[in-house]
Structures are given as C-alpha cells and as structure tokens.
Amino acid sequence: MTKTKKSRDGILPITVKRFGSTDENTFIRGFTYCSNETFFLLSMDSIKEYTIDLHTHSITSYDGGINAKQFEQILTNHILDFVAITDHNQTHFAEEMHKKFGEKIIVGEEIMTTEGEIIGLFLTNAIPSGGTAQETIESIHQQGGLVYIPHPFETIRKGVSQEVLQKISKQIDIMEVFNARAFLQRKSADAYSFASKHALPMAASSDAHGVRGLGSAYTTISGIPTAKTLTELLHNGSRKTKNAPLYTLLYPTVNKIKRRL
Length: 261
Description:
- With 261 residues, this protein is of the alpha/beta class.
- 28% of the residues lie in helices and 25% in strands.
- The protein has 8 helices and 11 strands.
- It starts with 10 loop residues before the first strand and ends with a helix.
- 39% of the residues are buried.
C-alpha cells in the first residue's frame, strides 16, 4: 500500500519487507508529520519477536511422528514462527518443507556420531552418521551450517559427554540448555553452566516427536534467523522452559510400533 502526499508534507514512500510480502509505507522526514498509523507500524516492527524451536522430528525419523500438515498448522496458528526439522541422519523431509515454507523451516539433521548426537542447522546436504564429533562438526561448517548440541551430558539419549564437549567447545555454535523431554535425566543446569562458561548462545527446544510436544519449549528472538544472524539473536533472546506433557514421552515408542505394523 502506498500513500501519496504532497511534497510539502515531507513524506516519501519506502519499501518495508515482511514475511513473504512487500508493503509500501511512508518514511518520515520530520517527526512533526508522523501520523499515528505510521508511528504504530514502525513501533510494532521495532519490537517484533519471533518464536523458534531448533529441535523437532518429523514422520521420516524412525521414531518421529509430526507430518507436513501438522507443521503447517503450527506455523499458520503462530504457535511457532520458525521451526528446525532435525530428523535422525536425514534431511529430505526438511528440504521439502523448506521449499514450501521458505525461511520458516530450517533444514537440520540430528547426526549420530561415535561420540554422541550432534545437530547441524542450515544444511544443504545430509551428513552421514558414524563419524567422530570432530569430523561431523567440520562437515557442518563446510556447508556454512551451525553446530547445535542437543541434550548434552545425557546418557539415555546419547548426549555428548563433558570430556568431548571440552575438546570441541570452540567449535560449538549453540548449546541446548533446556530440552522439553528431559524427565529422566535433567541436565539443564549443567548445560547452562557449560554454555555460560564458554559464552555460547543458548536455546530451549521441544525435541518433539509428536505434534502435541510442539510449543512446550522454544526460544524468543528479535529478528529473522539465518546462519549468520541466529547466534547473535539467541544471545539476546529469551527461553520458554516448560516440559512437554508427560504422555509425549511415549511418542517415540508409539511411532516405532506403528512403523512395524
């Protein structure tokens, strides 16, 4: 929308980009001529916050169960603004969703290394499992991606150990300091302490394997996340740290049974 004013009003049209669209608004030469509508729009832009979940599993994970329609509904209903789909050792579902929803879907992968699970974000190609933590990190960074450490210190869910984390600390981009499915092993305090000590960006994530796990934990950021901006946005963000409903712990088991049947 473009509003035309006389030159004496001191207002010129400029373009403001938003999600998937471009709007024409007005640029104010002097505060005297700032309309209430324009001031409101500019103020809303300056305080806009987005919710982001960096750890989720779709139906293509061997134990995942979130389908394309459910991801779409989560985005459409603004339960989350951005979602990283981080299936086990594969990226094809995430890539298809990214083609459909663009920047709202981050292509990720939860990669099983010989020393625990590591997530790559903003990937362009799937990374094979079975490498060392160092080899996997190098593969992620070669693609221009970010290294995200999920459920660190946990043994039940194959988290990366303290010893390994110390070795790779300078190559970690983001540390998961809250996982909504951490009921049996609660390592949030340890993860937060490690991230603080090494000045790492922190995130809270759902690790959802079913749709009802989404929206339980996430991070709020103030801008559009990219491989270049996300770490800084997380440094200045805030985290919602709520455990998912207890019954959602059964999602992985139920999903695996469904596949066998």
